[in-house]
């Protein structure tokens, strides 16, 4: 079933940065010139400035959290990275690796702090490809500089090899960034849902091979038991390479919303979901904002057996269904773990506290009293 505007909406207060995999709305760049930083850091040098090539996808969400916590602003000129007395944070080291290394080393010579976040650290930690091996060697040498701090967006306990290339870690921002108002809106929508309806399994975000849309559609089309047991919905713009898979899903009776959802509709999708699809192929095995938002709300996630997402769920006791491509249909045809909003909220509070503490230490900011 191809639908247009049938999703429940959560109201006008939903944040635009909740949409995890599509370009952020154009709200104007968050630039700040050197010397104009506001707020107060622990050493009196001003709040951090942030480097990122764009504010698309999850970057906009990350920037919003950093602004709320530290008064951080996106830097407008690359030269500001060198001369600002405030700490500099690279939002995604992978997108500007050479710049991160050069800026970090030059700033370290004057004792100025530079912090970089690794969004996809696994290839850098273990891949035998020469490009990754070279970067791995560089990151290991950067660990010798006390003014340069590289952090992963997954705990070392999830993948211990991360400790060889990074100085520390935080939880992905999208594991702990939702507001109380958004939670309450989702719970209200959840209470209004019809009783007795089939459990909903939702694939949220850009529908692409990297997000496992092929397997999602295939198991629904092949299993009559699964179709009688669950309703599959895919919400998000369909990538050109996934058009055939989307057609298979619709033919089998699944629901497809082939467009970018409004932020209110996105909250409504989470409210309607009994499980969220995060069973991605190895190419998509990295920190996931879709998993993060589901975890904050206590919604079970479907993950690939042995993946980083699976390890995170086990380590942090997040509700989940772990399966291989061969067993996932049978697993979903059985009882699903229950939603547990309170458990998700408590986990998000813990993630937030630990992550803010780690960020403040890395940036050289005063700890929270």
Descriptive overview:
- It is a single chain.
- The strands form 2 sheets. Strands 1-3-2-4-5-6-7 form a 7-stranded parallel sheet, with helices on both faces.
- The chain has about 375 residues and is an alpha/beta fold.
- The chain is built from 14 helices and 13 strands.
- The chain has helices at about 60-70, 80-85, 95-110, 120-125, 130-140, 180-190, 215-220, 225-230, 245-250, 265-270, 290-295, 310-315, 330-335, 340-365; strands at about 30, 50, 75, 90, 115-120, 150, 170, 200-205, 230-235, 255, 275-280, 300-305, 320-325.
- Helix 6 (about 180-190) crosses helix 10 (about 265-270) and helix 7 (about 215-220) runs parallel beside helix 9.
- The longest helix is centred in the last third of the chain and has 23 residues, at about 340-365.
- Mean pLDDT is about 85; it is low at about 20-45.
- Strand 11 (about 275-280), helix 11 (about 290-295) and strand 12 (about 300-305) form a beta-alpha-beta unit.
